[in-house]
Amino acid sequence: MFDRVYVINLPDRADRRREMTAQLALIGLADDPLVHFFPAVRPADPGDFGSLGERGCFLSHLGALKDAVAAGHRSILILEDDVDWTPAALARNARLDALRDTDWGFLHGGRGHDQAAAGGAISLQRLEPERELLLGHFIGLRGDVIGQMVDYLEAMLRRPKGSPDGGPMHVDGAYSWFRRAHPEVAAYVCTPSVAQQRSSRSDISVPTGWRATRAADWARRVLRPVRALLRGR
After folding, report:
1. Which of 14, 89, 187, 202 could form a disulfide with 127 if both were Cys (CB 3.0 to 4.6 A apart)?
2. pLDDT digits (tens, 9 = 90+) for 86-129
C-alpha cells in the first residue's frame, strides 16, 4: 500500500519515539523496514513563520517529501510522532479495503473524534478542495502528487508571510492551500478516523505558566491512559 512510512521525530524526543514505536507495534510495524524515523528539523530561528516549531514542522514535512522524491517512492505515508491509532483502526474487524480500491492522490487520516463503524469498514470520504481539514499527523500522498507537493511548499517558502498566493504557514494549512490550488487531485479522508493526536508536550506550541512546569508534564503523562480509557467507553 505504501512504499515508505515516514515518522517525523526530533532526535532528542526519545519519549515520543518510544510512544510511536509502541503504536507501530499495535499494527505489526515495529522494526519493519518500511518505517523510517525521519529526523525532524529544529531551525535556528522562526523566520517568517509564527514560531520556531511551526517552521520546523513545515521543513520536516518538506524534508520527508524531498527524500521520497529522491528515492523514487510512489506512495508514502507521513506520520507525526504524536499519533495514536483510533479504536476504529484497531478493531478486530477493521477493514481497509478502500485504501487499496480507491484511486486517491491525497489522504488524511481524520481528526479522531468520530465513532467507529459498526461493521468495521473504514471508508474514504471525498475531500472537496474548499474544505479545510487541519492537523498534519497522518498524510498520505501518491504518484505525481508527491513531487507537486514539494514544488508547492518550496514556492511558499520563497513568498513573504501573508502572501495572497500562500506564504510561510503551518504545514497543515499548507496542505489545505495545496488542495484548493489543485482541485484535480483526488483527496480523501478516512471515515471513521484511523489516527488522532495524543496529548504530549509539544515542540510546536510553547506552553506557558503552569503548563510549562515539570508538574504539568508529569500530570499529562499520568492522565494520558485515563483519558484513553474514557475514550474507549
Report:
1. 187
2. 999 999 889 888 888 999 999 999 988 777 777 888 999 999 99
**C-alpha to C-alpha distance for 198 and 223, rounded to whole angstroms:** 11
| Contact present, 159 and 165 (Cβ < 8 Å) | yes
Closest CA to 42 of 82, 79, 83, 10: 10
Query: Residue 197 and residue 84: Cα distance in Å, rounded?
Result: 6
Grid coordinates belonging to 218: 508529569
Distance CA 46, CA 85 (A): 31
Per-residue pLDDT, 232: 43
Q: Is the pLDDT of residue 146 over 60?
A: yes
pTM of the model: 0.85
Q: Cα(75)–Cα(52) distance, rounded to whole angstroms?
A: 29
Q: Which residues contact 218 (CB under 8 A, 6 or more apart)?
A: none
pLDDT of 231 higher than 70: no
List, as one string, the DSSP characters of 134-170: ---SEEEEETTHHHHHHHHHHHHHHSPTT-TT--S--
Cα–Cα distance for residue pair 136/58, rounded to 1 Å:
10
What per-residue confidence (pLDDT) applies to 82?
A: 96
Query: Do strands 138-142 and 83-85 pair parallel, antiparallel, or not at all (unpaired)?
Result: unpaired
Q: Facing residues of 124 across strands?
A: 190
Q: What is the DSSP string of 38-95?
A: EEPP--SS-TTSSSHHHHHHHHHHHHHHHHHHHHT-SEEEEEETTEEE-HHHH-TT-B
7: cell is 515518522
